[in-house]
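Quick start: load a record and inspect it. Here is TonB-dependent receptor:
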Amino acid sequence: MHLGDTLELNVVEVKGPDLEKYAAGQQLLRLQEKDLQDFRGDALTEVLQRRTGLFLRQHGPGMLASLTMRGTSAGHNAVFWNGLPINSPSLGQADFSILPTAAIDQVDIHLGSSGALYGTDAIGGAVHLGTRQLFNQGHRLEVGSVLGSFGRWDRSLAYSYSNQAFSTKTRAYRQHSRNDFPFRNLSRINTPIERMPNGEVTQQGFLQDLAWNISIRQQLHVAIWYNEADRQIIPIIGSNTQDQQQDRNLRAMLDYLHFEGKNTWNVKAGIVFDELIFNIAAVNKTQQYFLSGELDRNWNDRQSSRTGFRLTQIDGQLDTYEAQEQRWELYHSQKILPSPHLTLTANLRQFVYDGNWAPFTPSIGGDWNFLRTANQKLSLGFAAARSFKVPTLNDRFWNPGGNPDLLPEDSYSSEISLQQELTTNGFAIKQHLTLYRMWVDNWIIWLPRGNIWSPENIRSVINSGLEYRAQVEKKMGANHWSFTGIYNWVQAINQTNSSANDQSKGNQLPYTPEHKVMGTLDWQRNSWSAFLSSHWVSERFVATDNQLSVAPYELVDIGFRYQFNFLNTKKLNAGFHINNLLDKEYHIMRLRPMPGRNYQFNCTITL
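Running the structure step on this input writes:
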């Protein structure tokens, strides 16, 4: 090589877990970068509700948002950030309204029962959030802002630097909305249009990512994320409450990887501190400490395995009690390729909490590519799994009413899927159809017992459903078109009555829509891009007796984006969105109104 030659350095990314490796027969959805860009400044709630076909129970814009997957409850979905479980140990779930997209680089959604892979909570599925670190990128500064209806103003700032051995990224954000959208007050005569009086939301936080290529065999990643949210809680129609809630969340992790021949060693340590203050007086704090290690080995071209452990210490100082919990879990995964067209995986996990043994959790799955031609590929998938959810701290220790004798919720599931990839007449088509069935026993519900409420393992539920996803892409000259369509059908049927007067057996679970349909049309031409998106949600029953329901609704959104490149590597991204284009009046939860037509303008400058 001569002095005048240019040495091209490869872009190297911080290594992360391969979520698909031991999940044969199940579907993993990965949100594209453009999806997160379209919703930059929004909470993760909006991306999932409008792009994935999943349903979130939103109590209003910026308010509590809980995810339901395949008809399960909010606590039946495991949520991870850079591999750390971040579900609240006291509530047993995550609030997606305080997970801003400004702090997230990648989102992977594992559909279906996956307790053997991820541990407790993953009865309906799992959501993996992560930050992305690149090497050999030099200096980069990104400034962003979003202006929108109802007093919305978001700001973000990010700086990164990386060379071949070191990478750092620092970002900060602040988001604010008066949230004073007009709504129809159904509790008053003539149902006048009024402004929402108590809905202001402010959220801010920062992230720090550091990564080192210690050597060609070693990599270290450190990440810290602090987020705080101050919210006025929107009252239900007819109520004049002025509740307030403050959330403070600190997450930090250290991830060490060592590559040695066929082996990859991984050691991870982390903390998750959560604080929730309701109306100033009720203070709830939890601290989680994690330590895990695993070995992933590729034995040969046809066989690999992963073996590991995770230790968790939980400390809770809640409004009515204090508690501690210790957890340990061991797991093993195996992948075998009996032939080039067949992949089989098996997973085992044992989880113990405070000396209580959770159900032993196995799963199996397979993918069979039974047809492959020059322009088409067909594959068949199957999976069967057992999953579980341990009782939350509130379930066991709340004073008064907690029940320390509760059993873990226990589930069995099976699914079969068919996938097609086809190229014809310039169209690239992908289709995926899944049929599933799930049995959940020992479902925990709170019931009145005298003057207090107490949780019991009462409910049994059978969930059945169908998921269909199609993506069609076509290039026509300089125009690139793509369409994504999703249909989800869910039946979550209660199998038990909780009392002699209960008539809920055979009914759909509350706030579990039987149907959801979504379609998104994307267009791109050079620096211009646009999207038109719509989703329709069927009625949701308010209670287990299925006597009262919330009306179906359909939303249409439209957006435009322009990218202007200047000075070779600099760029400006500007976008304009109209949400709820048809100005529909709708509620996701009963008596909790959502905004009508609203607008937002976003701009990001990258230097």
